[in-house]
Every structure is written in structure tokens, then in C-alpha cells.
Task: structure prediction
Amino acid sequence: MTCRFCQTELTDVFVDLFNSPASNSFLSAEQLNEPENFFPLKIYTCSKCFLVQVDEYKKSDTIFDSSYVYFSSYSTTWLQHAKKYVEKMIDRFGYNSGSQVVEIASNDGYLLQYFVEKKVPVLGIEPTANTAEVAKTKGVESVVDFFGVRLAKELSAKGTKADLLLGNNVLAHVPDIVDFTSGLKVLLNDKGVVTMEFPHLVQLMENNQFDTIYHEHFSYLSFTTVAEIFKAAGLEMFDVEEIPTHGGSLRIYAKHAEDGSKQIESSVAALLAKEEAKGIKNMSYYSGFQQAAMKVKTDFLDFLVQQKRAGSKVAAYGAAAKGNTLLNYCGVKADLVSYVVDANPHKQNKFLPGSHIPVVKEAHLKQDKPDYVIIFPWNIKDEVMAQLAYIRDWGGKFVIAIPGLKID
Result:
């Protein structure tokens, strides 16, 4: 296999999480007795451009189909983040009724709805038809398609050019990152702005967030590598922010390389220097991650086995993709974690891929009164712990597995 960006042969394994089903491929009761597809989850580091990337991957059109169950609007924390972003972009760049905002991977309109409220024209690009239909009910015009050069050219030919071209947590999801960034170049207006948000590889490594590795993610990104990928597409970074979402993310700002109307902020050189000082351009920086993941696995399994022997009830909250990575890497089934609660009705009454743990409504938690509730989406643990604070009334405790086992 060769690197998706620079075509260098990949030989250095970053981490091997073995075989796992696609993390959002939830099962119906009827499917539990049918064969289930598992795919390798081995991640490599490119020794030339330092792009961290998956080895074999499930085809994107079979992940992002009409049965896709991730809807962004079920997290109030994420909605608040989206609303603040919209306010910031309008304040900084002055978008108005004469502007065109385009979001790639617009999901259920969770973000663009706030531009609609401000009377700013929007277009969502979303490959999953069921989420796009929900977006349309919020006034978000949506194109159901995958983004790349082909679609960018089609939209441009129809007169669509983006003054703001954004994508939150999509850059890591694209199998062909070169085609994707080239498409950004095509669709962006002459003086337009690209913003992308993605989990920061540095945070993933330093906080042992191996559970964010799953088949929907093809790349794990540093600012250094992304800047080079964008540069190759004729785009230039002019600002970057470190933000707290998803355990530590970056928000990058890019423009056409030939656009001289925007000042290159000092944050760009500062973060490049910060990453280099950490060793991002040295292969030794990427070693040792396998051992860190193994420690989480053994500690988590020890806890579950101890509770099983003690006769304690263990449940979980959040049927998140990251939880499925953790469960499948650890080989956990429904005999150790009885069920997982999730607010998303599209996941309820289904079963987690691989582990076959049932997904239930929150009412079941109140009735069952488990001794422990594992929070899989640790990135919104404060929101979850506030929502489920009542479990302490019966002596229940919260459990977090990442970056290390913590019982609260």
C-alpha cells in the first residue's frame, strides 16, 4: 500500500486494532443471526509526509448509505459549538444575504440552520440521504453526493461558488484526500475562505484516544501534514485555532494561494513550530502508541471482569463510534456490558456492531438502576454526567476508559 498523499510505500505501523466491523453499522434483531463483515483496522504512518492513515478500508459508499445512523443534532454541546461558529464567521468575514456558504458533510443541518436564521444563503453537501432529508426540513438546501473535483466542477458550472466553504469532521473521513482538497480549490470563490475542523493527531497521541480510530476515518491529521496537502492543491493556510471539541481539534482557515487579501496570522507559524518541537517530523514520535492502547484494553477488561464476579450491573451511555472501537478491540460482548443508552431514536432498539450490545432508551436506565455507567463519548462526558446525575441517587458511578480508567 502507498500513501494517499505522497505515494510513498507504507511500512511503519502506528497501531493495529485488529479486525472490526464498521462502527456505525448497527444491527437489527433479525441480523444478529446473520454473518457480519469485519475489516482490518491497521494504521500506518507515512515516513515521508507523516500522514497517519488506515491500511485497508471499507468503501465509503457502503458506510454512508441511507441507513446511516449518526445525526449531529442529538448533542446539545455540538449544537452550541455550531452556533458559536456561525456567529464568529459572520462577525469576522461579514457574510450576509449576498454571500454563499457551502458545507461539506452537512449531515442533518445542525450548523447551516444557524446561517439560515441569519438570512445567509446556504448549500449542504451530504452523502447520506436520510440525514439530508432532515436538513431540508430546516430550510437547508442539500445535494446528496460525495464531494470531490467532479461535484465541485458540476456546481461551479451551475454558478455556485463558495464565499465560505466549510467542513467539520469530514477531512479525516475522505478516502481520496487529494481529490477532496482539489475540489475545495475548484469550488472556492476568488476571495473565499475554507474552514475545516478535525481531531488533532497530537491530542489523539498524547491523550491515548485510539478509540477515535474507526473505518469512517481514513486519515489522522497534524497541522503540518494538512498544510502540505492544501499547499499541493493551491490553497494556503492563513489562520489556525486549537479548539476543545472531540478531545482536542484544529480549526484551519485556508484561502487561494494567489489571494493576497488576507493576512497570514502568526498562529500558523506558531503551530507548525509547536508540532515540530514535539517531533511530528520524526518517526520515533509515533512509536509506543500500541502499548498505550493495550494498557487501556487490559485495565478496562480487568474492571469489567471484576464487576462481573462481584455481581454488579454495568451499563453504558452513548452508542458512539468510538465506543464501538473500544468494545471490539477489547472483545467485549453483552455479557459484560448489558446495554447502552442513546438519545438517538435511529439507534434505539438496534444492536452495536460486533459486540451485539442492545441500544435502549434512557428510561431503561432509570428502571434498571445499574451500579456503573460507562460513558463512551468521553468528549461530552460533562454533558452526559449532568444529564444522568440522578444515578448517584442509587449509588451509581460513572466510568471513563480513555485516556485511562477513571471511576467517578
Remarks:
- Residues 289-407 form a domain with the Rossmann fold fold (CATH 3.40.50.720).
- The two ends are 43 Å apart (CA to CA).
- The chain has two domains: 72-278, 289-407.
